Amino acid sequence: MRPGLGRRGGFTLIETLAAFAILALALGQLLSAIGAGAANERKADFLLRATADAQSQLAEIGVSQPLVAGKSSGRYDDGLLWTLGVDRDRVVALGGGPPLATGFRLRLEVRLPTGGERQIFVAEKISTPNPENRGP
What is the mean pLDDT of each run of 10 residues along the chain (136 residues)? Predict the structure, then answer.
């Protein structure tokens, strides 16, 4: 036997390929977790902005202008799109008596302007008209 031709130290090709496969799986899981976290961050940001915009708009409706049945839509300053549906609704008395007043059912939908990811925030409110500011 010649000197230096004995068993060499190191890794075989199979061991190296197995190590790379394990590393690739671990990196894939890490990137998947980071992507899911980013998607959750985008959704949380949308819901926070949509909630603030919708609460502000619903609080203002019927105060600064009369309530009128119908549909309207627009865009907030931060770019979110909104659609408001106002329907007449009867507010009934307890015990099934005659209606106390004719109110309005408000349905406000807030959505992203992009068509790719479909995120919608819906807020509903029942409101009676302000006596000083009645609509037709």
Answer: 64 94 96 92 89 87 78 90 84 65 82 74 74 46
Residue 63 CA to residue 130 CA, distance in Å, equals 7
CA distance 94 to 115: 45
Distance CA 57, CA 85 (A): 13
Distance from C-alpha of 37 to C-alpha of 31, rounded to nearest angstrom: 10
Q: How far, in Å, CA of 15 to CA of 112, rounded?
A: 49
| Cβ atoms within 10 Å of 84's Cβ, excluding its own | 19
Neighbours of 21 (CB within 10 A): 10
pLDDT per residue as tens digits for the range 63-72: 777 777 889 9
Question: What distance in Å separates the CA atoms of residue 113 and residue 81, rounded to the nearest whole number?
Answer: 6
